[in-house]
Design a protein that fits this description.
about 160 residues; six-stranded mixed sheet; four-stranded mixed sheet; about 0% helix; about 55% strand; globular
Length: about 160
C-alpha cells in the first residue's frame, strides 16, 4: 500500500476517427480506517515520460475529496492547471496525473472519469484492476529509503 502520497497516472487516447471529450474527474472514497502501525519504505519516484501530464491533487482527508487541478512544470516552463473539458483523440493523447495524499487515514479510493464521444458517453473507473486504490497516512511512522549506493534500506 502507498504511504502518505500516491501518484496515479493514466494515458488516454481515442480509438476512432473522432475526438472524445473528458468532462469531469470524481474521487470516490470507499473506506477510511485508522492507519496501520507499520514502517514506511520510500521508493524512487522514477523519471518522466514524453507527454506532459494534466495534474490534479486530492486530499483524501477531506470529507468530500475533490480532484483539484494544479499547475505543472515542463523543463522549467510553468504549465497552467488543466481545465475540464479536455479533448483527446487517437492523434492527441492526454496523461492525467493524480497525486492523492493523506495524513490521517488508511483510505480505499478510486477515480471516476466521465467522457463523451462519437459512440456515446460513459464513466471510466480508475482503480487497481477492479479493486480500490489504497493510500495510508505515514505520520509518525519510521521511514526507510533505499540507498542505491549502499544497496540497502536506510533510515
Amino acid at each position: 500500500m502507498h504511504a502518505g502520497t500516491q501518484i496515479v497516472e493514466v494515458t488516454l487516447h481515442g480509438t476512432g476517427g473522432g475526438a472524445v471529450v473528458l468532462e469531469d474527474l470524481e474521487v470516490r472514497v470507499a473506506a477510511r480506517r485508522k492507519p496501520p502501525a507499520w514502517n514506511v519504505y520510500q521508493m524512487s519516484q522514477g523519471c518522466g515520460g514524453g507527454l506532459t501530464p494534466a495534474a490534479f491533487a486530492v486530499n483524501l482527508d477531506a470529507p468530500r475529496p475533490l480532484a483539484r487541478p494544479v499547475a505543472g512544470n515542463d523543463g522549467g516552463s510553468t504549465l497552467p492547471a488543466p481545465v475540464f473539458p479536455l479533448r483527446v483523440s487517437a492523434a492527441e493523447p492526454v496523461v492525467l496525473r493524480v497525486e492523492a495524499a493523506t495524513t490521517g487515514c488508511d483510505c480505499d479510493w478510486s477515480l471516476d472519469l466521465r467522457w463523451t464521444g462519437p459512440s456515446g458517453s460513459g464513466t471510466l473507473r480508475i482503480d487497481d484492476g477492479g479493486r480500490p486504490l489504497r493510500t495510508s497516512a505515514a505520520t509518525g511512522r519510521p521511514v526507510y529509503g533505499y540507498a542505491l549506493e549502499q544497496g540497502r534500506w536506510a533510515r
